[in-house]
Amino acid sequence: MERTNVSTEIYIRIQKNKEGGAFVASDFLDMGEYKAVSKALERLEEEHKIISIIRGVYDCPHYSK
Question: Is 24 left (phi over 0), alpha (psi -120 to 50) or beta?
């Protein structure tokens, strides 16, 4: 069985959260250690999948059609 990486797991959870709202690394500590989660969030931001509101606080942008 292929193991998904932390970035993918985090992004899947973010997409499933229909309410939206800001999130921080500590919201995902059940998926890995703090450093790994923080790096995964940085990578998701670099891929423009999430945005940084302020240092360490992120949001997933929702665009209208």
Answer: beta
